Amino acid sequence: MISHWWERKDLKYSEQGELTLGGYSLERRARQSGTPSFYYSAERVRHNLEELDRVLSRHTFKHKIYYAMKANRFMPLMTFMKSTGLCGVDVCSPNEVEHALSCGFRAEEISYTGTSLSDNDLDRILRHDGLVLNCDGLSMIRRVGERAPGREIGLRINPALGTGYGTNELLRYSGTKPSKFGVYASEFPEALALAEKYGLKVVRIHFHTGCGYLNGQLEVWKQILETCREFLKDRDTIRTINLGGGLGRPLTSSDRPLDLEKWGRTIAAVFGTDRYEINVEPGVYPVQDAGVMVLEVNTVERKSGRLFAGVNGGFNLAMEPAHYKLPCEPVPCRLREREEDAFHPDRMGEVTVAGNINEALDLWIEDHPMPELREGDLLAFLNTGAYASAMSSNHCMRGTFAEYLLV
Ligand SMILES: Cc1ncc(COP(=O)(O)O)c(C=O)c1O
After folding, report:
1. Which CATH architecture has domain 11-41+289-406?
2. pLDDT per residue over 244-268, tens digit each?
3. Which CATH superfamily is domain 43-287 in?
4. From ligand 1's centre to the CA of 244, what distance in Å?
5. Extended beta strands in 125-243, E state
6. Which of 48, 64, 87, 90 for a ligand 1 pocket mutation test, highest count of atoms within 8 Å of Cβ?
7. Which ligand 1 atom sits nearest the alpha carbon of residue 156?
8. Rounded CA gap, 293 and 211, in Å?
9. What is the pLDDT of residues 128-160, one digit of tens each?
10. What is the model's pTM?
């Protein structure tokens, strides 16, 4: 028996050698509907939200989960998430506010944290009574104050410390180099004074310091929480702490799943069990491993000794590998031989999987051991439920794809 690092009860090869997600054969679905196509398992999303909710519920503090819809705004998926009753939505633009409302979320279930807002953005957001609003800096506090004096706000703070996937600097939002996000400790008193000037009630702090952290980063994450706790000293009106998102998922065989229990205990250890309401706004965690992108191999050819498999979709459909240098995992949708044989180390060959965009960086993965591939085969790119379709572009006019919610 062979087991793959990514395998789960709802993501595995069937006895017929077909990769299944939530019981659906991706080969069959993609042959029927065409490629490029994305498939999202509703049950996996529910499972992920429930797991998060369960871990937070072990502690006596109140909590709320706001799904960061920038990760995936596919309407059927978001409507499904609303129907679970397990989450609200984290948004970062007026259009996201409108989209969340159209998916059935109420204004009070929508938390806004954005940067570089125009006056027009603010006018559009402030129309929605009850919307949870976090201010990202002094300019925003002033302009919210001018428009909506007396309103409750949160302040996004910047602890000058960040963490993300492994040592990947591209996924850190905070560190020694000043970043555009939030209010630093040096400007925090000024931010509070400005809020007071306009009668704004600061009821919450918010921070999001990076994306994709796993167990190896929990120590730094704890330090981040402790640094943020300093902002709360003598601030009795602040009753809610939004810890942002950033919870990661394994992306390679050497990654281990985030120890969510330890993560929950860390929150309780730093912020206590009843003083504050804890909010989280994960994007990756609920949806990344629930989604798979399917592309067709159209070219198999050796070039200067290196075996390339060309596929009918490029980095513009799932930008993270090219953009953030994150690993990706393409696997065949159907195996030609028994799983043990197809994935036997002696039988696999090194393949460089290349997209269909005329740019040198458009390589999905290089010299990766894979079962034999032929032109016409379908490949499933795992863990593409987050920041893939949502970030896609029409570069080279190759931005066409379909999305399906598997229920
Ligand atoms: C403010 C804020 N909250 C939440 C998230 C979601 O992060 P993740 O998808 O890593 O959980 C992001 C991502 O950029 C963000 O900027």
Report:
1. Beta Barrel (2.40)
2. 999 999 999 999 999 999 999 999 9
3. Alanine racemase (3.20.20.10)
4. 6
5. 132-135, 152-158, 183-184, 201-206, 240-242
6. 90
7. 1
8. 21
9. 999 999 999 999 999 999 999 999 999 999 999
10. 0.97
